[in-house]
Amino acid sequence: APIPEETSQAVQQESAEDARASALEKKLAEAARYEREHPDDFAGVIRWFEAIRSEGQGTEYEIRAENELRRLDAARKQVLEAVIAGLTAEAGQLQQDGKPEEAAALLLNYKGPHADDTLEKRKELAEEIVRRDEEAKRALREKTERAQSRLNDLLRSVAADVLKSDFAQAMMRLDAAESEGEWQSVEPELQALRKQVGKVSEMPRVILDSFRGDQGREIRVLFSTGPQLLKIGLVGQDGRVRATPAFGPSHAGKARTAAAK
Are 147 and 186 in contact (CB under 8 A)? Predict the structure, then answer.
């Protein structure tokens, strides 16, 4: 007896579904093999399972492919995060070593696994390093300019103190300045100024010591009115030198008005 038409169509449909299932099963096996052979090619593996999902719509293979895609997405994120974390740690060490340019270059020039997948994130991190470095340099320039301006004001004040022989006040100004953090960028200049003030403050003593070595001797001393020949007498603790002109009455003058021999 002939096979009923309905039965024939059912057999044909079942046969087509079996063939479709067989083809999809084969593709699943091929996708798994490709993943084993190319573990770093997430994009390629994902394309395999996306194709299976599309071809297997309405079947268990759509669900199986969808599960694999979710697994791949989670694994991909984990691997990419690990790559970025490693690069970020290396770049951070370079920044700590004062090499921000090298840190940015490390991120931009990475050619290792998943370089394409991490490119956008690496660019973002490199741009942030460059931005922070520029901000730090700008802040340092502004701080240095402020410190230099204050140093110039301090120089004028200290110079005025020195001209009045008020070395104690000059040193007090320097002590106060050194106690403030704003002076760090001009610390060498500040120390040089302190050293010079210290040297100048010693000049009266140096001159007096010079005259003490000449007590009882005749020497030529330069005054504002011109040179005079004097016989050096007593050199007092009050900073004055008693001397007798070689050609006239005694003369007493402050040691700081006379030149050392």
Answer: yes
Across the strands, what pairs with 222?
227
Return d(Cα 154, Cα 157) in angstroms, integer.
5
Q: Which helix (H) or strand (E) holds 253?
A: strand 251-254
pTM: 0.55
Q: At what angle do helices 119-163 and 100-108 cross, to 10 degrees?
A: 170
Other C-beta atoms closer than 10 Å to the C-beta of 258 total: 21
Q: For residues 214 and 239, give the distance between their C-alpha atoms in angstroms, rounded to a whole number.
A: 15
Angle at 36 between CA 35 and CA 40, to 5 degrees: 60
Which pairing describes strands 226-235 and 240-245: parallel, antiparallel, or unpaired?
Answer: antiparallel
Burial of 226 (C-beta count, 10 Å sphere; 0-12/13-18/19+) = exposed
169-224 pLDDT per residue, tens: 988 988 888 877 677 778 888 888 888 888 888 777 777 777 777 777 787 777 77
Phi, then psi, of 60 in degrees rounded to 5: -65, -20
Q: Which two tokens stand for residue 83?
A: 């790559």
Residue 252's DSSP bridge partners are 242
Give the start-end residues of each E strand in 113-250: 218-223, 226-235, 240-245
**Residue 125 CB neighbours (<10 A):** 20
